[in-house]
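User: You have something folded?
Assistant:
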Amino acid sequence: MAILKKASNINIQVANNYTSLSKVSHEESGEVTIEATKQNLELSSQKKAILQGFGKGGQADPEDKKILVDRGVVNKGYWINENGKTVIVNSKGRRGYDWMYGDAPSEEVMKANGMSKYDIFNVNLTKSYPEAYLKAELKTTLVGFSDIEDGFGKNGRAIANHFFTGQGQPFTFGPGTNPSNEVKDSDRFKTTFITALKAELEKRYKEKKYINESPTKIYQFSTKLPYYSAEEGLNPWVNEIATFVGGIQGCIASYKVYEYQISKKVEIEIDKVSFLDTFGAGWEDGGAGGMKKQWIPGLVAMFCLQHFKNSADQSKYQPFTVVIDINL
């Protein structure tokens, strides 16, 4: 039994569904066009599907290749190099009080910078303690907020000792270290920050056809940096980054820009991020401005070591930049 259709033209129009079922179906034509005008076109097979073109003039669809069109680094924040030190500054090149040391501020100066009578009393009391006691208090605090997996307080001891004798040189937590992993694994970094930075760089490239105007004019991006508050020192997922860094002040991000040859779609890749922050005691660490940070163990001891206990030997207790390197 067979159905045979012959005609110069056959036009089949169906308002809703059209279903054709057969054991074997063979269709041959000089040209076949299958078009779904409104919704999806679905072709399925219980075994493999084969599409072949035997004509001499046929050409395969060209591949939409992804081409690297730009690469470099972008920054957020400002810093200067000074005798091997990386000093974080503001947009006008000025450093904060957390970068001062051995200055022994008077009570009048402390009051003028927002410290209350109680704050001044607390600083005067703390600085009367032996230097060894203050060092032990600070180191105990840093070790106490360290993770077991980093070697039972290894990172806390290392950063405390660097503050004692590092003479202001940068201190780096490299890729794979616990603070680096804490940042890398946090949603505020991998979901919020990286996504927003990629979107910003993609928008800039589409508008300008470049990211950096020149090798000497590095783009300062506006994406907000992730923040880890001091109170999160008790959070086991971010306790080291919150204790050692907290409010990140600077960033260097390495990027690549790809553009597809046919679709012209732009794709941004971030392959390395470095965060910078100051490890030093400012006015608020002594209690200025009602910040109440003086209640965090070890901060007033650090304030006194940095600003009072080294007035005779300023090679000790110098502030420094902590760098967190993250590979992506």
Summary: The chain has a mean pLDDT of 87. The CA atoms of residues 84 and 169 lie 7 Å apart. The longest strand covers residues 266-279.
